[in-house]
Amino acid sequence: MTDPNKPDQNSADDDWAKAMAEQAGEEPAAEDDPWAAAFAEQAEAEHQPDEPPEPAADTSRARAAGDTVFKPLDDGSDGQSSMRDLEMIMDIPVKLTVELGRTRITIKQLLELAQGSVIELDGLAGEPMDILINGYLIAQGEVVVVDDKYGIRVTEIITPSERVQKLNR
């Protein structure tokens, strides 16, 4: 395409000249390249003499954002805030199960069960019952009867190390 004012100049020649200048490593003037001007402004704003330079890692921004969104953990000296935090979970329902014992049977034995059948469990009479919360063993206790209703009296709270040992049952 040609310019009507300059019939001997070809616009493709101008584009080729720019491309050749880029390839030779020459940078176009800032007024010709708006991106270069924007990058120059950004570099000047980031490295102001009154501000310390930012660290190379971008984790400071992530930490700063996290600190504004999430409340930092304290040393626990404020008992009032910890009680308030505990109150938030007080109404969450959990499933409590008392387990008398377990056994393994075959499918044949299962199909032979009828009303009145007795299944032998591995738990012994008088042995503490397992108390499970959402399927995890947390305590042991003994069966009690209060006003014609069954209940369980907690006799022992299971420590985390004991829980691991009892998982193999």
UniProtKB/TrEMBL annotation:
Limits of the Flagellar motor switch protein FliN-like C-terminal domain: 88-158
Transmembrane annotation, as ranges: none
Topology of this chain in the membrane: Peripheral membrane protein
Keyword tags: Bacterial flagellum, Cell membrane, Cell projection, Chemotaxis, Cilium, Flagellar rotation, Flagellum, Membrane
Annotated signal sequence range: none
Cell location: Cell membrane; Bacterial flagellum basal body
Positions of the UniProt region annotated as Disordered: 1-80
Residue ranges with Acidic residues bias: 24-34
Family note: Belongs to the FliN/MopA/SpaO family.
Function: FliN is one of three proteins (FliG, FliN, FliM) that form the rotor-mounted switch complex (C ring), located at the base of the basal body. This complex interacts with the CheY and CheZ chemotaxis proteins, in addition to contacting components of the motor that determine the direction of flagellar rotation.
Name this protein carries in UniProt: Flagellar motor switch protein FliN
Species assigned in the record: Modicisalibacter tunisiensis
